Amino acid sequence: MNRLRLGVNIDHVATLRNARGGAYPDPLRAALLAEAAGADGITAHLREDRRHIRDADITALMNGLTRPLNFEMAATAEMQAIALRHRPHAVCIVPERREERTTEGGLDVAGDIARLADFIAPLREADCRVSMFIGHDPRQIEASAEIGAAVVELHTGAYCDLHAEGQFAERDAELEGLRQGAALADSLGLEVHAGHGLNFETVGPLAAIPEVRELNIGHFLIGEAVFIGLGPAIAEMRRLMEAARA
Questions:
Q1: Fewer CB near the last or first residue (10 Å), C or N of the chain?
Q2: How many CA atoms lie within 13 A of 241 on its CB side?
Q3: Nearest 5°: phi and psi at 88?
Q4: CA-to-CA distance for 63 and 52, rounded, in angstroms?
Q5: Phi, psi torsion values for 108, nearest 5 degrees
Q6: Is this structure's pTM higher than 0.90?
Q7: pLDDT tens-digit profile of 146-161?
């Protein structure tokens, strides 16, 4: 089975910084600590309202990282221009609503095929690996392959929410949907990533899906770092991922 990569999302280091309005804590410093602790890549989402990550953070990350940057972004002309200017290793196209606290669901690729195909074409030409953040609906997976995406990242939020609510039958059904979605995406030549809401309790079953190549985890790791430190939180997540993979 392929080695499972861990991408660490450092958005909420910026959330903490912005709450006070200063320069501390520094998202780049967190990203470098994550690299040292075993992260295979760093994820940052530049939202349209700049509620956490800012433009200067993307510049600093591009200049300072030794591991790949996964640039999460909405499918807007502004974000496309920023991505083309920086040319990160990967761009992940996500749905975005100004009033949401966090990404609430997957992108509707099937309902917007022509526009999204045109939107990602320049990114592909710039050698960015394009990922679509979607649910496990087969229509969305097939549409992602049709428009030329290299990767799909499966939204694991519903699975994690059902686990937290103790709805275990529904959780297991959602997990089975994710398994089937991963298998379908892999059969279509898409690399499979997954993420959203994962923690120490929920990561194992996702890590055990053989087609999944990367997990992207942020909020939980930054929150856990308050109690045990970022390095130990990442090390424990890596240990659980590797145990499940084995």
A1: C
A2: 27
A3: -65, 165
A4: 19
A5: -90, 80
A6: yes
A7: 999 999 999 999 999 9
Cis bond upstream, residue 25 (ω within 30)? yes
**Helix or strand run (H / E) with residue 8:** strand 5-9
Single-letter residue type at 39 = A
Closest CA to 231 of 23, 80, 34: 34
Q: Which structure tokens are listed for 84?
A: 């083309």
Six-digit token string for 191: 């690399």
The Cα–Cα gap between 67 and 222 comes to 19
Q: 129-134 and 5-9 as β-strands: parallel, antiparallel, unpaired? A: unpaired
Active site amino acids:
45, 72, 196
Choose among 227, 230, 163: nearest CA to 201. Answer: 163
User: Where is 116: in which H helix or E strand?
Assistant: helix 113-125
